[in-house]
Amino acid sequence: MYKQLKKIVKYGKVIRNELLSQHTSYRVGGKADYFVMPSNVIELYDLIQYLTNRSIKYYILGGGTNVLAMDSGYKGVVICLKLINEIREYDDYIQVMAGTTLMEVCKYYQEHNYCGLEDATLIPGTVGAAVVGNAGAYKFTMGNIVKGVMVIEDGLIKYYSGGECGFVYRDSRLRNSIVLSVDIIKNIGCDYNRINEVIGLRSKQPKGYSAGSVFKRVDGIIVSKMLDEMGLKGLKIGGARVSEVHAGFIINDGTATSQDISNLISNIKDKVYKEKGVKLEEEIKYIV
């Protein structure tokens, strides 16, 4: 299959037996049979068609900042979109290709005095993944600034307006779609003071290998605060521990396996359900 993948992805990259730990912020994960980086939308579309027609399993990876790759690796093709990276300017919006990082877009907004992304400053990951999961921080969510999204869905290229994307808290109707590009609303008047405030807030977040906040809010409950009150800061399994700085973060001390992290997540969920009757749901996604 390697030769066929190379024919499709002529200008991108095709790597066999690639360690996923090299492509995730947790720095864990075994080998993917094939790790493919298309260089443009045409290569990506042709690749999806080839894999779908042959019922070959694949996983779409953005920046790898909100996922947990398992130690057993991935039996199939992991498709990384980082090379599909471009920002185009139009009259009342910018079009951002899916592999562009949200940090790059924030920088572009700041340089052009556009507003709307101040609270997104320093959020890691790619724009495509951020839209699918309706990423957010403070008063910001991606859904509030999206004009439209171009996707591959059911073998076709489709366009959805922002209102058709079904944005809800940390989710959207795009979970089964492959985002190609995102049209983002632009307005003049960047709040540079707010950007500095957000940089200050983020400087206080835990350092180390992590995927940010592990759990979604539940019925308005701030999960990190609840975990702190339960005394779970510092809880540890193997090389994975609950951060002493922010209880919503699980940190890999550099020796953790994905199983350590997964077991710690399960342990926390069990404790919270037994003590609080609350069912936690992960923000992070599993590459399985």
Write the layout of secondary structure elements.
Layout: H1 2-8, E1 13-19, E2 31-37, H2 41-53, E3 58-61, E4 67-69, E5 74-80, E6 87-89, E7 93-97, H3 102-111, E8 114-115, H4 127-132, E9 136-137, E10 140-141, E11 146-153, E12 156-161, E13 178-185, E14 187-188, H5 192-202, H6 223-229, E15 236-237, E16 240-242, E17 250-252, H7 258-276, E18 285-287
Parallel strand pairs: 2-5, 3-5, 4-18
Antiparallel strand pairs: 1-2, 6-7, 7-13, 8-14, 9-10, 11-12, 11-13, 15-16, 16-17
Write a structural description.
The protein has 288 residues and is an alpha+beta fold. It has helices at residues 2-8, 41-53, 102-111, 127-132, 192-202, 223-229, 258-276, and strands at residues 13-19, 31-37, 58-61, 67-69, 74-80, 87-89, 93-97, 114-115, 136-137, 140-141, 146-153, 156-161, 178-185, 187-188, 236-237, 240-242, 250-252, 285-287. It has three domains: 2-80, Uridine Diphospho-n-acetylenolpyruvylglucosamine Reductase, domain 2, CATH 3.30.43.10; 87-193, Uridine Diphospho-n-acetylenolpyruvylglucosamine Reductase, domain 3, CATH 3.30.465.10; 207-287, Uridine Diphospho-n-acetylenolpyruvylglucosamine Reductase, domain 1 (Alpha-Beta Complex), CATH 3.90.78. Strands 6-7-13-11-12 form a five-stranded antiparallel β-sheet. The protein has a four-stranded mixed β-sheet with strand order 1-2-5-3, with helices on one face. It is globular, with a radius of gyration of 19 Å.
